[in-house]
Amino acid sequence: MHLQVEEVSQLCIQKPDCRTENFLCDLAHLSNKNNFVMTRFLLAFCLSAFASMLAAQNCNPDLTYADSTAGVYPKPYEPTLTPNGGITECAVIGQPFEFTFTIVINDTLTYSGLSFPLDSVLVTSVSGLPQGVNYTCDPPNCHFLGNTIGCAKLSGVPTSGNTPGAYDLLIGGSAYVNGSVFPLPISFPDANLAPGTYTIHLNASSSDPCAATATKDISKQVSIKTVPNPAQGESQIKINSQISGQFQFQVVDLLGNRIQQRQLNLVFGENTVNLDASELSNGFYLLMLSNERGQVTQKLVVQH
Asked: Is 198 within 8 Å of 188 (Cβ atoms)?
């Protein structure tokens, strides 16, 4: 007799008091019960897998960095090169803290002026974290393949065992380049890769001022324009300021080396500063104007 389970089940429904088909009826009931258990198991498994998938997606990369060179973003804080970089959120003892880095892996890694074909980067550590704060990645194994964008998240609740203050971090990892199985050790920050600092400012209370936000962009109050730009000789820097007082003016190269520095006393409105670009080598520079309220920068190209 070759009956499907559904046929036997229907037979048992039609003849619930049957004797001849009792064995088949029991078998059908058992099969239906097992199907029900299996369905519940599969449902639970799917829900668990879905929850695990959501948990693995613990952070979201900032897609505005998608076309950037390989590295960690925001870049480390460096007062002349990246004044708006670094960790911009303060942590407070006993309160949840969270900050997300975007990690961009394209096809080239530039280190100390040399370029290497980049296959992948593995983040292996984040040292210097306050107690209670850890890191996670997306992808979960912290192995970022070439031509992808991912993220790493710092999160947790700093414990009372921490001392309030500045905690300098170092992101350690390995770069796999040019098809080699032997990785190149890298770190962020790094003087040759990404100069500056990543610092978590830990406060004892949420009412304490946040040192991470002390440096402000004042480009809405102060603007800089160099004429001509590119420059090759005597140039004028036109400064329109809605803030009067003492400012520090600096010319720095893209490696962070300070080329010139002087104090300026700006008045409200138009100001003019003379700059002799003939003293500068061909290349790109940053003009930086700063005071206790913040700073503003402008790129300068020197071409003789």
From this structure: yes
* 163 Cβ contact partners less than 8 Å away, ≥ 6 residues apart: 202
Tell me the pLDDT band of 292, cut-offs 50, 70 and 90. low
Token pair in block for residue 239: 């400064």
CATH of domain 63-213: 2.60.40.10
The two structure tokens encoding residue 182: 């032997």
What single DSSP character describes residue 76?
A: P
Q: Are 276 and 234 within 8 A, CB to CB?
A: yes
- CATH 3.40.50.12780 is right for the domain spanning 222-302: no
The H helix count followed by the E strand count for the chain is 2, 18
Q: Report the candidate in 13, 151, 141, 147 with the shortest Cα–Cα distance to residue 70.
A: 147
Q: Rg of the chain's alpha carbons, rounded to an integer?
A: 31
Helical pair 5-14 and 22-56, crossing angle rounded to 10 deg: 130
Q: What is the pLDDT of residues 217-248, one digit of tens each?
A: 678 889 999 999 999 999 999 999 988 888 88
- Rounded to whole angstroms, the Cα distance separating 107 from 287 reads 31
46 three-class SS: helix
Domain ranges of the chain: 5-56, 63-213, 222-302
User: Distance between CA 56 and CA 184 in Å, rounded?
Assistant: 27
E-state strands within 45-183: 71-73, 91-92, 97-105, 108-111, 114-127, 133-138, 143-145, 148-156, 165-177
Question: For residue range 260-278, what is the model confidence (pLDDT) as tens digits?
Answer: 889 999 999 999 999 999 9
What is the C-alpha separation between 205 and 200, in angstroms, rounded? 15
**Of the candidates 98, 117, 111, the residue with the CA atom closest to the CA atom of residue 187:** 111
Q: 114: which residues sit within 8 A by CB, 6+ positions away?
A: none
